[in-house]
Amino acid sequence: MDELEIEQEGHVEGLSAPAWAAFGDLMAGVLGAFVLVLAAALVGQLDLAHQLQAEVEQRQAEQARREALERALAGPLSDGRITLVEGRIGISGAVLFAVGSDQLHPEGLALIKSLAVPLRAYLAQRDEILMVSGFTDDRALATAKFADNWELSAQRALNVARALMAEGLPPDAVFAAAFGPQQPVASNDDAAGRALNRRVEIAPTPRPRRVAASAP
Questions:
Q1: pLDDT of residue 102
Q2: CA-to-CA distance for 192 and 133, rounded, in angstroms?
Q3: Dist CA 110 CA 105 (whole Å)
Q4: Which of 14, 81, 99, 185 has the fewest CB within 10 Å, making it most exposed?
Q5: Residue 170 DSSP label
Q6: Which among 206, 207, 203, 184 has a CA at the least distance from the CA of 195?
Q7: How far apart are the C-alpha atoms of 34 and 41, rounded to whole Å?
Q8: What is the gyration radius of the CA atoms in the chain, in angstroms?
Q9: CB 42: neighbour CB atoms within 10 A?
Q10: What is the per-residue pLDDT for 198?
Q11: Containing H/E element for 201?
């Protein structure tokens, strides 16, 4: 090997070391990026798994709550005096009140009293309260006692709530809400539909969390 060949070979070897070093740095960077992406994917999968598990547990708890309420109200449900749809107890307005009135019928008051015992037992085992909601049809009132259907539905809900409290439900476990002609369950174009829309619903709902008072 002459001197020129030796010189050329040394020159190539001198260039190869930095090239391999740069290639190694590049591969290390790629590997590091891959590890970061993989770690992020794993964290995302764990978060998704936890979220799915929480949703499953929430659905199971809701199903258990509805089944417990159905068992507590088996009597009035079996004879058709009330309905239970998605955890909401429905009572026909005709059972409770005369058209345009907020005064409970004797049979309506008796029904409310019969519901008080199982509802009180149900609430005693859960951190929930009862929302009593009043609904009407969309026809104008034929009485001057109430300004509109909103006021009528509010007073009806209040009277049902008061009847429940008179039967031993704690005042802090019952509240009233008025929806007037909103949220109909049937058409208001015929008498049968309007009768269905005139109703009171009683629905267990989670108790609002108390906010701790801030320190002065």
A1: 95
A2: 21
A3: 8
A4: 14
A5: -
A6: 184
A7: 10
A8: 34
A9: 10
A10: 95
A11: strand 199-206
CB neighbours of 187 closer than 8 A, spacing ≥ 6?
Answer: 193
Hey, what are 100's tokens?
A: 């345009």
Q: Environment class of residue 8 by beta-carbon count within 10 Å: exposed (0-12), middle (13-18) or buried (19+)?
A: exposed
**C-alpha to C-alpha distance for 28 and 34, rounded to whole angstroms:** 10
- Say how far apart CA 190 and CA 187 lie, in whole Å: 7
Query: Could you tell me the pTM of the whole model?
Result: 0.69
User: Which class for 177: exposed (0-12), middle (13-18), buried (19 or more C-beta within 10 A)?
Assistant: middle
Distance of CA 23 to the CA centre of its chain: 57
Helix (H, G, I), strand (E, B) or coil at 99: coil
Per-residue pLDDT, 214? 53
